[in-house]
Amino acid sequence: MVTTINKISEYVGQEVKIGAWLYNKRSSGKIQFLQLRDGTGFIQGVLVKKQVSPEVWEQAQNLTQESSLYVTGTVRQDDRAPSGYELDVTDVEPIQVAEEYPIALKEHGVEFLMDHRHLWIRSPRQRAILKIRAEIIRAIQDWLNNESFTLVDPPVLTPSSCEGTTNLFHTKYFDEDAFLTQSGQLYMEAAAMALGRVYSFGPTFRAEKSKTRRHLIEFWMIEPEMAFCAHEESLNIQENLLSHVVQHVLKHCEAELKQIGRDTKPLENVTAPFPRITYDEAVELLNKEGMEFKWGEDFGAPHETKIAESFDKPVFITHYPVEVKAFYMKPDPERPEVALCADLIAPEGYGEIIGGSQRIDDPELLKQRFDEHRLPKEAYEWYMDLRRYGTVPHSGFGLGLERTVAWICGLDHVRETIPFPRMLNRLYP
Questions:
Q1: Rounded Cα–Cα distance for residues 96 and 83 (Å)
Q2: Which residues sit opposite 75 in a β-bridge?
Q3: Which residues are listed as membrane-spanning (predicted)?
Q4: Which CATH number fits domain 5-96: 2.60.40.1230, 2.60.200.40, 2.60.40.200, 2.40.50.140?
Q5: Model pTM?
Q6: What kind of architecture, by CATH, is found in domain 117-416?
Q7: Cis peptide before 124 (omega within 30 of 0)
Q8: Helices (H) and strands (E) in the chain, counts
Q9: pLDDT (tens digit, 9 = 90+) per residue, 27-82?
């Protein structure tokens, strides 16, 4: 029976055949222990010299790290094994005996590992992180789909900026200027006017020359937009979505979280509702804690970390000054100097993972914002049409996938959260 390691429990006492790579090998002279991986998991194959032919024994001896092979053997339950099962090997069919593998089973420097990222992702820890990433994506999409959101794909090439910044990658679109998207939000607003509740999931690009552990040049965003939705309802949606994601990972990624050494106790607290404080209250908190901070500035990483320390689950900071937020955020009618917006700050020093707001639905106010931000109106004419033809209250948010993965996995740097990270000085491999 041909199978995979993740299904091996279905064949206890039976002979199976799997395609695999040799992760590691040790021998006691008369027994060879083959650490095998096939992408779905890891298992140990036990090869006893007196139970196989001399040819099979020699073929196994000649295998090097990351050699590819077919292995045949009988599945045996073993509670001492990490997976709970081992394979009593009866046959080995080498596909390729690999050259000397660059990433030996020892400590390597980060730059060396990043240069060999295409091979590094084969290691148990990196595989576990990527599996958790996949489950986070699954949980997000499942929750949104069940809540009647429709997936819509915005363009990657755009004629203008979403947030009015200069941190854009410029390219030529035949005879026109174009940019790699920094957000699909404006297009998702258009989609929401057609479909009600929508979301996008795709790559975004920020040409920020930043080297911090929270930043990537290319990263993935989940961006829901909701028609007939005010600020408060949007916050409820955000906290329910994130609660579902964390609890899904705890349920479905127990082995992977254990593999990477993640303390899951802080994650168990992540259930809705989340605490909420205003920007004013956050400023007051910082000053009380001895971090001098002036009203009207935006929070940096140290400020977000300090604020998060006062809570045991993610916290919303709401009602930022209009001046520090994007042009499309709706001012609070009762206090126009602040916006109906919120950033969701993760615990344990991971900073902002969601940013959202109620959007401006008044065409006259939006025109005023274009003037204040000196935005080219011709590039945003289509966006103005959304306010001319059936404008409604609407809200949305963006969830940064890599920061969310870093937080849930407890990683020191976002470079491990994506298969092939793009950073300030890294475009290889």
A1: 26
A2: 12, 87
A3: none
A4: 2.40.50.140
A5: 0.96
A6: 2-Layer Sandwich (3.30)
A7: no
A8: 13, 18
A9: 998 999 999 999 999 999 999 999 999 999 999 999 999 999 999 999 999 999 88
